[in-house]
Amino acid sequence: METELYKGRSFSGCIKAAYLLFNTNLRSILKKMWLPSLLWAVLATGLVLIYLPDKGIHDAGMAKPWTTLLLIGCMFLGEIFADIWFMARLQCLLNGLPIRKNFKRCAILTCILLGAGILFYLLLSMGTNLYMGQMVGKSATLGKMAASSIAAVVLLIAILVAVLPFEFSFIKYLIGETSKLKDVVTQDYRKGWRHWGFLMITTFISMLILIVLSSILFIPFSIILTAQVFNQLGMLDGDPNGAPSGFFAGVIAVTVLTLFIDAFLYIWYYFVLYYAYGSIEALEKERKELKLEEQIDSKNKSITASIS
């Protein structure tokens, strides 16, 4: 796809450019992305259904627990593979590199993010247990509870602030053929940090748009899923099945379709971050050129002063 990437843009310019890129290349995007999007939607639907109350799934799981556990594990691994494939195909649209190179970079980054997510979850669990122990312990006081709550909020804000520059360094690693993994946490992270305010406003506005669009998209999904949950809870309590025949198939179809469309909304959101990355790179280039010109001017002035 033809993209004018390295150009200074405002946050609204990035959002507009992402919309134009998505709209003008919709046929190419559908052609390249429909299969990984469908695989991701199907596997995600399976994981959603597993965690819903369902008498048939519950009885089958109780009858063959190890088979069920193996099936869930395979679905999780399949979902990770679908995520990597989806991102790799998306990078191919943007940088034109072979799928093998993009798949490798996406797989490496996904594994790192999974490891960081697991570590964060373990630390969060430990912190929650410690916090709850202070809340219910004999030595708990109103002052301690308030201090713990404030500390938790400050820590969460600090993590969000520190994570934001990774939006730039992650995309540069995925897009650039010569980008190195170590640069994600070093020089590219510092570049993202210098433009933290721009990344924040761009992310906030585009996420707000994404949430509004997703909320509208998920209305039918929410309605049919709520009906399924209440029907299954009644059946688990001994009530007869009140759903019409084929209702469960309808739940699956609506879930797959909703998640499939939602994948393309994410593609638009990624395009916004893609143009934010290009804008920062353009500004950094201008900054470097300006600094070089200042150094040359300073040298010329020094030479002139020494001659005179």
- Overall, the morphology is globular
H-E order:
HHHHHHHHHHH
First-residue to last-residue Cα separation: 57 Å
Radius of gyration: 25 Å
Q: What is the average of the pLDDT values?
A: 85
Could you explain how this protein is built, in words?
This protein has 308 residues and is mostly helical. The chain is 84% helix and 0% strand. It contains eleven helices and no strands. It has helices spanning 11-24, 26-50, 55-63, 65-95, 99-136, 142-163, 166-175, 187-194, 196-217, 219-236, 247-307.
What's the SSE blueprint?
Blueprint: H1 11-24, H2 26-50, H3 55-63, H4 65-95, H5 99-136, H6 142-163, H7 166-175, H8 187-194, H9 196-217, H10 219-236, H11 247-307
Helix pairs in contact: 1-9, 1-11, 2-4, 2-11, 3-4, 4-5, 5-7, 7-8, 7-11, 9-11, 10-11
Comma- or semicolon-separated keywords:
308 residues; mainly alpha; 84% helix; globular
Brief rundown of the structure:
The protein has 308 residues and is mainly α. Helices cover 84% and strands 0% of the residues. The longest helix has 61 residues, at 247-307.
